[in-house]
Specification:
The structure is a homodimer. With about 140 residues, chain A is mainly alpha-helical. In chain A, about 60% of the residues lie in helices and about 5% in strands. In chain A, helix 1 (about 5-10) crosses helix 3. Chain A starts with a helix and ends in a 15-residue tail after the last helix. The interface between A and B is large, with 59 and 59 residues. Chain B binds a DNA duplex (30 and 30 nucleotides) through helix 2.
Chain lengths: ~140, ~140
DNA sequence: CTTGACCCTACCATGATGGGAAGGACTATC
DNA sequence: GATAGTCCTTCCCATCATGGTAGGGTCAAG
């Protein structure tokens, strides 16, 4: 299997396969006489592992740890679970952060009539800092 | 006001103020004879506007549009509202994406007993692709 | 033997931010 | 005035994962 076939089979682009090799995430692949990289099923499986981990939002740094555990037949599942839970925690933090942004924006958008007139509580808030949404005297403000 | 004071007053770091100037997001500040940048209240207000927009997740590209509307006294609030709703939509998409990751991970973590034994449905899933969580025959698999 | 599809390396770009170095400017204290 | 410390300036580098491009080699089918 050359890199293109491995890419198709694993869902990781050829570009990224080379990148992962260059950073040491995966070992250097074998080469043909012409210098083409060659991949076996086991390497494709490792690439799929990486792809799936990325799809779950793990940063490459954590995938390194996951791969080490994957290879280690005497691993403790507690270690894997810990990594997963850390990732869940990180996702929860980001979700909460974005939810807060969304709620604020939704609140502002709800207060904006969205017509042809220039008065806009959204701009008023952005220009004056949080908590001024209800100050109608400021809704006309620009710079 | 020099750049340090403007940074404190606006919540935007001096580093970022220079960056915004270099990319044209804000006009070039005036200078003292010695070459120090000088900022007036109105410029600090613009920086606060940018800061607040960033806090709501707007990319700088969109902030450019928001700033243009802010300056335009004959703007239509509908244009502002549209930008806000696009941003809300983008946030919703990202939240849903991360929520899906989290749910999958939570499901896998729940299935992992997390003890000293190597058997781990999380690794099994990562190694074999989605949907194999219940295949107990595979939970021991490594590379 | 040509053509097209693939592979190789090496470099550049992203987006928003921080870090740091080298050198000049201002301010407060002695 | 001198000196120390803090600020400013510009310029370069790093992040993180990914894509793009350019220039050149390889392979397989016609």
């Amino acid at each position: 299997m050359n890199i293109g076939e491995a890419a198709k089979a694993s869902g990781v682009s050829a570009k990224m396969i080379r990148y992962y090799e260059s950073t040491g995430l995966i070992p250097a692949a074998g080469r043909t006489d012409a210098g083409y990289r060659v991949y076996s099923d086991i390497e494709v499986q490792m690439l799929r592992f990486i792809r799936r981990s990325r799809d779950l939002g793990f940063p490459v740094e954590k995938i390194e740890e996951l791969l080490a555990l994957w290879r280690d037949r005497s691993r403790q599942s507690a270690d894997v679970k810990r990594l997963a839970q850390e990732q869940i925690g990180g996702l929860e933090r980001k979700i909460a952060e974005m939810q807060a942004m969304k709620d604020t924006l939704q609140h502002l958008a709800d207060a904006c009539c969205g017509d042809h007139r220039p008065d806009c509580p959204i701009l008023a808030d952005l220009g004056n800092g949080p908590g001024t949404t209800n100050n109608r005297a400021l809704t006309r403000f620009g710079p």
